Amino acid sequence: MNLYTLGYSAKYMIGNGDSQVFCPMAKDEIKSFTNGYPDIKTPLIFELHKKAKLTNCLSQGAIASGGLLIDDKTKDLLADFILIKHKFYPTEIIGKKNEIIKNYYWLQIEEDLTGEIDYEKSIFYETNGVSNIGEIKIDSYQWYQKQKAEKGWKFGLNAKLIVLKSDSKLINYDLFRLFPFEYKLIMSERLKSAIVENKLTGFDTEKYNKVGW
């Protein structure tokens, strides 16, 4: 079973690494997207960089979650696939001539999938906040939580191999994220093929070999 990562492409970023859009909203509102689903009633506001072009997926640096800023064409395509828990937040993008572009959505995709992992078969690297210290075996998510509570930011894990349980529901899913052990979105080959066939722009994808059954 082939899996791939899904993210925005750096190809369309501007000059010195600026994203295609930036967000003028208050920082507290943006931080609320770090985990979970904030109850925001009004559209999220973004502004298109003066030198940027519109793509189906837009790069942004304001919201530090595993979501994506996508247009209605991508949103409609995703309706034919199986995603973990998610929500589409309406956005308004201020264009180069101050016009309001309303056909983009913030895809927030978060679900606790820590129970899907076979920890005894998985392999992790312990980190000290800066670099990998060495391989470490853990037996449960609760063990990870305890270590994190005791050591704080100085303790972290990077995945070398995440083995999912043989009966994991994720075998049938097309898009998921194994936070906190993996920040990237992971997609099926079926979804990857559909993105390519529909010529959707602004996406970056690569083969992902860190997850197995």
Helices and strands, in order, run as EEHEEEHEEEEEHEEEHEEE
% residues in beta strands: 25-35%
**What's the Cα radius of gyration?**
18 Å
Q: What does the largest sheet look like?
A: 7 strands, mixed
Count of DSSP E strands?
16
Domain Immunity MXAN-0049 protein: 36-207
InterPro entries: Imm11
Pfam families: Imm11
Organism: Wandonia haliotis
Key traits:
213 residues; alpha+beta; 2 domains; five-stranded antiparallel β-sheet; globular
Helices and strands in order:
Layout: E1 3-8, E2 21-22, H1 27-31, E3 44-48, E4 57-58, E5 68-71, H2 72-78, E6 86-94, E7 100-101, E8 104-109, E9 123-127, E10 132-136, H3 141-151, E11 156-163, E12 175-176, E13 185-188, H4 189-197, E14 203-204, E15 207-208, E16 211-212
Parallel strand pairs: 3-6, 11-16
Antiparallel strand pairs: 1-13, 1-14, 1-15, 2-3, 4-5, 5-8, 6-7, 6-8, 9-10, 9-11, 12-13
Briefly characterize the structure.
It is built from 4 helices and 16 strands.
Task: Please provide a written account of the structure.
The protein has 213 residues and is of the alpha+beta class. It has 2 domains: 3-113 and 169-207, no CATH class; 118-163, no CATH class. The chain contains 4 helices and 16 strands. The strands form 3 sheets. Strands 2, 3, 4, 5, 6, 7 and 8 form a 7-stranded mixed beta sheet that branches. Strands 1, 12, 13, 14 and 15 form a 5-stranded antiparallel beta sheet that branches. A 4-stranded mixed beta sheet has the order 10-9-11-16, with no helix packed on it. The radius of gyration is 18 Å and the shape is globular. The chain starts with a strand and ends with a strand.
